[in-house]
Automatic annotation (TrEMBL):
Function text: Catalyzes a salvage reaction resulting in the formation of AMP, that is energically less costly than de novo synthesis.
Organism this protein belongs to: Peucedramus taeniatus (Olive warbler)
GO BP, one annotated term: AMP salvage
Protein name: Adenine phosphoribosyltransferase
Oligomer status and interactors: Homodimer.
Length: 166
């Protein structure tokens, strides 16, 4: 691989210690479940972004009694897909995909990931879901790096983060 390396993220953006601690991880899912239940009485799917969004999204969907839909890097999903290209903050191109039949028009989704930095990945995922005519209720992350202004790129899509760092 050529080109610049990804920037080093601040230590506060590492969720690995949280994942290793079963009490802390359960508390995280409790907080997210409480937030989604209080904010949205009707959600059809949790949509998780490759790959750490899967770690949060699947237990959250299970708790809520709803399905989980993965948005993956290009070439990882079987069957017909929709894909989108976008630029990463360090100048490298990336592509995301969702299965063409993942959601029906009008179904309500909450998109989850571990971190929002510049917002490129989250915006790309929102565009894929809009193409499928899903109703995006919210983009939900554990950590937001506020100085990078990623949430501003989401425009009118509601956004929620548990922790914010400058």
């Amino acid at each position: 691989p050529s080109g610049p390396s990804p920037p080093a993220l601040p230590h506060c953006s590492d969720i690995s210690p949280l994942l290793k601690d079963p009490v802390a991880f359960r508390s995280l899912i409790d907080l997210l479940e409480d937030h989604v239940r209080a904010s949205f009485p009707k959600v059809d799917f949790i949509v998780g972004l490759d790959s750490r969004g899967f770690l949060i999204g699947t237990p959250l969907a299970q708790r809520l009694g709803i399905g989980f839909v993965p948005v993956r890097k290009k070439g990882k999903l079987p069957g017909a897909t929709h894909s989108i290209s976008y630029s990463l903050e360090y100048g490298k191109a990336a592509e995301l995909e969702i299965q063409s039949d993942a959601v029906e028009p009008g179904q309500k989704v909450v998109i989850v990931d571990d971190l929002l930095a510049t917002g490129g990945t989250m915006c790309a995922a929102c565009e894929l879901l809009k193409r499928l005519k899903a109703e995006i209720l919210e983009c939900l992350v554990i950590i937001e790096l506020k100085d990078l202004k990623g949430s501003e790129k989401l425009n009118s899509i509601p956004f929620y983060s548990l922790l914010q760092y400058d």
